[in-house]
Amino acid sequence: MQDWREHKRTVLENAKRVLVKVGSAVLTDEHGLNLRVVNRLTDQIASLHDRGQDVILVTSGAVAAGRQALLACPPCGKDIFGLPAKQAAASIGQSRLMHEYDEAFARCGKTTAQILLTRDDFQSRQRFLNARNTLTTLLEWRVIPIINENDSVAVAELAFGDNDALASMVLGLVDADLFVNLTSATGVFEANPSENPKACRLECIQEIAHLDVEAMCHGKTTVGSGGMYSKLLAAKRAAQLAVPTLIVSGKERYALEKAMAGEDMGTWIMPEAQAIPSRKFWLAYHDWQGQTIGVGVTNYAAQDLKKIMGRRTGSIEELLGPGLYPEVVHRDNMLLDPAL
Ligand SMILES: Nc1ncnc2c1ncn2[C@@H]1O[C@H](COP(=O)(O)OP(=O)(O)O)[C@@H](O)[C@H]1O
Ligand SMILES: N[C@@H](CCC(=O)OP(=O)(O)O)C(=O)O
């Protein structure tokens, strides 16, 4: 196995397309969106971009920015914290968030584009491909795509709920070669540092597939977003796509620049040696219902399957007519144990 430090150095030096994700805990403070953080982050992303790297930004902060606006001018006697209120706050905040990014990037001479996605967009092959085409075109034009979940239309069962999951899905859309996840912690620790202050930072996670994420983060760590738990699940998906993840503090000044320059900070998560082909990755996220042990595209409709269950292959043509497939789900169209 390649030494992880050497692997990290090689990826950092050669990454052409970097996806940077920044969460609410980094971007916001008790007053809402922290513009100093937004400006520092855009400066650093612009520098990477100037060096020729494509950068895709997945950002949270719409709900916080919306609530900030609402608190400045509250709707008399109305709830601003329930789910519909959260969705409405996101729609108020998203345009403000985007405005701040747009202005900050413009000061660095960069053009931005907003893309709002929901889980639906990854479940429909057509929408998945449309989103991919748009992103590819933007990147060819050297525009910086800024992505968030489309909170105001996402219904509970279709919501990502946290942008770590969204970011990991976008990796597959844009064929990124590095995922940088900016967090409020200084990296991944052996255990939740707020519960166990003696826990040490992990410099590298070599085999994320074998990591007990539940135990390490003690379940989900924050309400409404996943904290480190969802970052590790996102890193697991990234690893399946053969994309390494760097989880690093977004609170520290110049953290992104320093991390990209190879300083010893945060946690490096090694990718799996064998990437899932992108079509299979899409399959993995196509069906989210029930207890999933694997996913695949079937050659037979459910009612036909009921008719032929338990029958000999030779009798199938008699039941369903000619032109049949020899298998219900071909192994090329099947993925077992996706990191759902
Ligand atoms: N093993 C762990 N290592 C590091 N942080 C952890 C761990 N388990 C739980 N956490 C918590 O996860 C949080 C990091 O996520 P955060 O950046 O706050 O989330 P978000 O990006 O969703 O807003 C930290 O507050 C930290 O206390
Ligand atoms: N899409 C929402 C944030 C979702 C969320 O909680 O994200 P994160 O803080 O990154 O885990 C927003 O823009 O406010």
UniProtKB/TrEMBL annotation:
Entry's Gene Ontology cellular component terms: cytosol
Single annotated GO MF: glutamate 5-kinase activity
SUPFAM superfamilies in UniProt: Carbamate kinase-like (SSF53633), PUA domain-like (SSF88697)
Record domain Aspartate/glutamate/uridylate kinase: where: 16-248
Catalytic activity, as annotated: L-glutamate + ATP = L-glutamyl 5-phosphate + ADP
Residues bound to substrate: 60, 151, 163
Top-level EC class as recorded in UniProt: transferase
Pathway(s): Amino-acid biosynthesis; L-proline biosynthesis; L-glutamate 5-semialdehyde from L-glutamate: step 1/2
Keyword Kinase in record: yes
Subcellular location(s) of the protein: Cytoplasm
Keyword Cytoplasm: yes
InterPro entries for the chain: AceGlu_kinase-like_sf (IPR036393), Asp/Glu/Uridylate_kinase (IPR001048), G5K_ProB (IPR041739), Glu/AcGlu_kinase (IPR001057), Glu_5kinase (IPR011529), Glu_5kinase/COase_Synthase (IPR005715), Glutamate_5-kinase_CS (IPR019797), PUA-like_sf (IPR015947)
Major localization listed first in the record, in broad terms: cytoplasm
Protein residues bound to ATP: 21, 225-231
Domain of life assignment: Bacteria
Assigned EC number: 2.7.2.11
GO biological process: L-proline biosynthetic process
Keywords: Amino-acid biosynthesis, ATP-binding, Cytoplasm, Kinase, Nucleotide-binding, Proline biosynthesis, Transferase
HAMAP family recorded: ProB
Function of the molecule: Catalyzes the transfer of a phosphate group to glutamate to form L-glutamate 5-phosphate.
Family listed: Belongs to the glutamate 5-kinase family.
Name of this chain's protein: Glutamate 5-kinase
Organism in which the protein naturally occurs: Desulfocurvibacter africanus subsp. africanus str. Walvis Bay
